[in-house]
Fold this sequence. Notes:
Helices cover 4% and strands 40% of the residues. It has 344 residues and is mainly beta. The strands form seven sheets. A four-stranded antiparallel β-sheet has the order 1-2-3-4, with no helix packed on it.
Amino acid sequence: MADRRRHHKDLNLVYYGTGNPSTWNPKQRPGDNRWSMTIFARDADTGMAKWVYQMTPHDEWDFDGINEMILADIKVKGADRKALVHFDRNGLGYTLDRETGELLVAEKFDPKVNWTTGVDMDPASANYGRPAVVAKYSTDQNGEDVNSTGICPAALGSKDQQPAAFSPDTGLFYVPTNHVCMDYEPYRVSYTAGQPYVGATLSMYPAPESHGGMGNFIAWDAGEGKIVWSNPEQFSAWGGALATAGGVVFYGTLEGYLKAVDAKSGKELYKFKTPSGIIGNVMTYGHGGKQYVAILSGVGGWAGIGLAAGLTDPQAGLGAVGGYAGLSKYTALGGQLTVFELGN
């Protein structure tokens, strides 16, 4: 698992998120299952926790909470704040005060997220900071051996491993997202050392009644909790974003395209088809007075597991194989570094 901790030297804090509890059958582990699905801020010298915030108490969908924590000084509802911004698998974009842990914003960064109606933002409430779970999509309330259908997002989340980027020039966050929903049937499972400890059968598919694709690349206002613009993608945008001082944002797609878009409008400026699907992160560097952009292509990851591993059972890969079965028509296996020189 990638190390996604972040250290802030002024506050001497290290930030990271924790993963999901096991099993994936929530009936086998009652309660909030603390401190899974939690953002931690720890003193870098002592390791003591200064603050914690649990995003998805008693996770019922595998909304693992380890995605990157982005530290940025931004305006939140008009006031300057030292913020921590996190795009969770559960489909909510969180903005917290990185010193105190105060929850400032918690909003859906994909419009199809339906497992919750939203987070209680009233500090006086007993449920402050908790998401309200919709009974229809609760795998715990529906019970064991019941197939809960139409849950959005799927277990791979509205965003998974693909890192978002922040531009201090626009004040926006650029997020490669998954636009995917699922059916989820939990079942009782016993623990055996060295064996998978899951306890659920899943199937995944594009978000219904939408653009028909499985991804979006969005610009996000973390101070207001709003999508500024959104570019639809046929498959999940599974490559990390790069925001540049030139007002251009780069990202890769599972079909293998490297795309460059305008940071303010999202307008596509350029695209190049690499030999394989992109799950890597776009990088830029200077050499000899010139700037270069590079991308490693090579399909894989959860979304590309069917193609990468030669799997055909639709429920393999915890349901991802069926959801992304069409990917084989658009790209092939292989690994290649493609480097571009930026012109004047």
